[in-house]
């Protein structure tokens, strides 16, 4: 029995008709997300990054060459405010990890571009982040992880509210 089983079991004694499988699912997802987040957050300071800075670097790196996106695209992709993104970009720019340049597709706009140093740090941070996540599930058999990912993919495909524009899973 784990903490979620105990919590759900207690509630089922008190209000047996209220909690269903979705309650157990959300508790487990939230606890896993917290464990993954905590593991990654413990590693990022060694790279001199906050979670928000890592998110911006990763979003730019996964954009592909030339590793650039418009600030409003970053705002939507990362669910941060425009002011929040601007502050993060300013910090990254001051460290030489990104640069702003005119958007060739829109003369009035700009885009944020990873510098070579930013590309290297983004890739190193991604490796560290992935390794931190792997430690959380190190004792879980690969077949179990695959089955869990497949099950969550099926839930995601049909759950309401997950596919709104501008939201990321």
UniProtKB/TrEMBL annotation:
Pfam families (alphabetical): MarR_2
Occurrences of domain HTH marR-type (ranges): 22-157
InterPro entries: HTH_MarR-typ, MarR/SlyA-like, WH-like_DNA-bd_sf, WH_DNA-bd_sf
SMART domains: HTH_MARR (SM00347)
Protein name stated in the entry: MarR family winged helix-turn-helix transcriptional regulator
Originating species: Pseudonocardia yunnanensis
């Amino acid at each position: 029995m784990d903490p979620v089983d105990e919590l759900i079991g207690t509630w089922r004694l008190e209000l047996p008709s209220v909690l269903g499988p979705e309650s157990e699912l959300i508790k487990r997802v939230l606890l896993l997300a917290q464990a993954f987040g905590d593991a990654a957050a413990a590693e990022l300071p060694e790279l001199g990054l906050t979670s928000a800075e890592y998110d911006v670097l990763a979003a730019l790196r996964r954009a592909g060459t030339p590793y650039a996106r418009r600030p409003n695209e970053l705002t939507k992709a990362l669910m941060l405010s425009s002011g929040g993104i601007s502050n993060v970009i300013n910090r990254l720019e001051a460290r030489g990890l990104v640069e702003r340049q005119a958007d060739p597709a829109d003369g009035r706009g700009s885009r944020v571009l990873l510098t070579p140093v930013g590309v290297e740090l983004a890739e190193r941070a991604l490796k560290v982040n992935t390794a931190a996540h792997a430690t959380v599930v190190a004792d879980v058999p690969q077949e179990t992880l695959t089955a869990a990912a497949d099950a969550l993919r099926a839930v995601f495909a049909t759950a309401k509210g997950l596919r709104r524009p501008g939201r990321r899973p």
